[in-house]
Amino acid sequence: MDKFLSGKFLFIGLLFAGLALYPLVASSYGLDLVSKIMVYAILAMSLELLVGSTGLVCFGQAAFFGIGAYIAVMLSPESESANLLWLLPTAILAAAVYALFVGALSLRTKGVYFIMVTLAFAQMAYYVVHDTKLGGGTDGIYLYFKPILGSIIDLNDAKVLYFFTWVFLVWTFVFLAILLRSHFGRVLAGIRINEQRMRASGFSTYPYKLAAFVTSGGIAGLAGFLFAVKDGFVNPEMMSWHLSGALLIMIILGGLGHLRGAIIGAFAFVFLQELFKSSEIFGAFSKHWQLGLGFTIIACVALLPKGLVGLPDVLRKRLYGSRPRDAQVALK
Known about the structure:
There is one protein chain. By secondary structure, the chain is an all-alpha fold. The chain has one domain. It is 73% helix and 2% strand. The strands form 2 sheets. A two-stranded antiparallel ribbon has the order 1-4. It has a two-stranded antiparallel ribbon with strand order 2-3.
């Protein structure tokens, strides 16, 4: 068990170290792309807390993401940079408050009804910004000056923004890893496995699920804030149900039930998306990049039912077959 855990954390540690060193060799395009992937990784981990750890399939994550993004832009002055110290917590809090409202109602339902209620609330938020002048309507709104923290942090600098995002990626992973190994996390795991048995054991499951839902919404708001600051622009499409669907694909592709799977899935999904969009590689077929992406994801799910985190086990099985563990050790 210790060997297994050390292997997992060695991998994620090397990944974080590689991301920290990447700006030394990255082009401006590469820096922007990896910043985008890290934001999606944070967002995917927020959904992993619900789907993989609690068993709640939520189709409303894009709404919390969008709220964090819109708050970041709407509360920023047009003539100067906002103070990061209050703008970031406000964006997170706004997303968490909406998650509290949505969760308080949707968690009264189960199964497909829960999915549909969360989707309905997400679409409500989408049409509020899409069909009204709030937030610029369909045109969206621009962030003219990115937030700063005195002379310490200036997010107008691409490398500063990259490392700022990296810090929150690491923080989100560590925070959720500790949370899921706590008593609270073990209760969530029990709810995922058998909620009825947890209730019979004396646990009131609703407050635990609501706390997980609000935490997930707050982290999604953090991701939305980072995305808005990175792009300097927000529009209603970032609150569309398509993003919620893409997030589900990311965590399934990476490996459901694993935080590192959410990170790997985000990297794999965006990489494949950019790959199939490349006209230099696929020529005219790049216009139909969704087909290539779809077939590749189907193949990955079919060949790797545990996701990309299960790839080492699949390779080990192919290499050693069904030989006893002692024989495998002897071959090493």
